[in-house]
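Hi Y.,

Following your request, here is the sequence exactly as I used it, all 390 residues.
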Amino acid sequence: MNRFIPSILLAGFLSLPLAAWSQAPGSPGPTVGTELSDTFAADLALVRTQIAEAERDLTSAPGGLLGDLTRVRIGVYRLTEALLEHRAAVAATAVSVPGVLTAPDPARIARAEAEVAAARERVAAAMAQASQSGGMIGILALTTLATERQALALAELAAVSARQGFALAPPASGGGSTTQPAASAPTADIPGTSEADDRAPDAPRSRALPAAERRTLQSLGYSVEDDWAFLSSRSRMDDTPQAHGRTQALEDFYTNRDARALLVACVEGETRLYVDVQKYLLTDYQRRTVRVTYRIDQRAPVTVNWGTSTSGRATGLWGRDAIPLIRALLDGEELLLRVVEQNNQQHQMTFSLKGFRQAAQAVAEACRWSLQAPAPASGQQPRPAGAQRR
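Below is the corresponding structure, written out as tokens. Let me know if you'd prefer a different format.
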């Protein structure tokens, strides 16, 4: 289905009334559309280079979600190429195209080129992340990279349209647009959470992996259980058993931004439970911790301090500190979690726990501990799950 989207867009563009492609009656002399811009040759060469690169990517990953994303990317570039070829044909006939071709607007060009620059930065960051990742994290990183490349293709389509003077949306007749501004999304119902941080708070609170992504993961040996994907493997360094499980924030599933994720893992004998917030966290300088409040279903909220990863983008529990909270999550349906940085910036996210037990079981088996909590020693006060040992 995705591969037909660019063709549909092009068909819609070319189906504009013939009057839009011809000289308006009584209009004076040559107008917009009779000459090619100075950037035409460079734009056409860029688009054809991008098509060739995308087709090479498709050859290396023809199936699954990665293949689908790459096909859409190729389709967008093919659409851009077709528009440019149409533009050359219009110039060759020396016919103006009022309503479809307009004089290039410097402000529009600047905005579009800024979007392209930002998209290229995101692609570069995604490429760096993919080159440093392996296993399940590597597959998800490659998916992110393919998505960012698709976004870059759309940004370059907009930039080419701006430079060549394409008015893909014909101007509305009459006294201006009747489009109403979109209503701003309501803030979350937990006080103190910034509206900007809570992405799509009204998104449905049920999430299953898309069918294409599920097939891709399963073809690579991953198990998918409800909202969690997990993989058991062995360390390349010492052959010890390993396991990784992951789900993404429910708020982020319906956006195109990098998804925040909850991860559970056993890596070379170390148990880990952590949250990747997709940004650098400002921590307590001396202890490198952030304040975390979590709530499992309708249980009482718990506030603890968690350490951060060496990258500074994740916070969680490592080693035996992670085990009590993993056990506490086993019978839950949903985890609500808030991370508060040293500057009081807050990050709130919700994670489904459907399928978590199977991921946790794989981690427990790899790190050789039991999901069943041992009985506390006589007179010993249990620590809250999620607390770090001093």
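The mean pLDDT is 75.

Thanks again,
Q.
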